[in-house]
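re: that chain from earlier
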Amino acid sequence: MVWRGSPKGKDKLFACLTYLVPLLEVLPFGAYLFDLYSPLALPFLPLIVLQPIYYWPGGGFSIVALAVFIGLFAGVAQNTRLIHFLRYNAMQALLLAVFAWLCSLVLSLLGLSQEAVLGGFSGNLTGATAYLINTLNSVIFLFVVCSSVFSIVQCIRGLYAEIPVISEAAYSQVR
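^ sequence. v structure.
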């Protein structure tokens, strides 16, 4: 049953909590901004504390992140017994997290990961390449964080957040 009435307080809270997933996924992209503007990291301290738990390794990949993804997808977004508002926001949060994950995957396949800029195992990049990577990481970080914050505010108000392309994909999955 798809229930599209006005969401109650607990539905708004649970819808807001789903946006922790994209925020946790995109935190590594903000490393350069956190280094450049250290006060910017203050609102993200609770997420930075949760990050080791979220990325807890198990067999070469983060098992908690996978369990959270599957739980949100199968248990919330595809569960027709829950209200549409919660399912829509869960799917939208998952799509934002998938976007961050795909960006991370593409950048690491191209050898343009954040570790390369910070002098990690890939070497220390300088000049225009480091500037390009830092800019790209910052744009990805700001897009996902701003989209998540906007969606959280809309959830608190009891409204559906409309993010171009992502909202359309979320709505088509949750009908």
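The first helix runs from residue 9 to 17.
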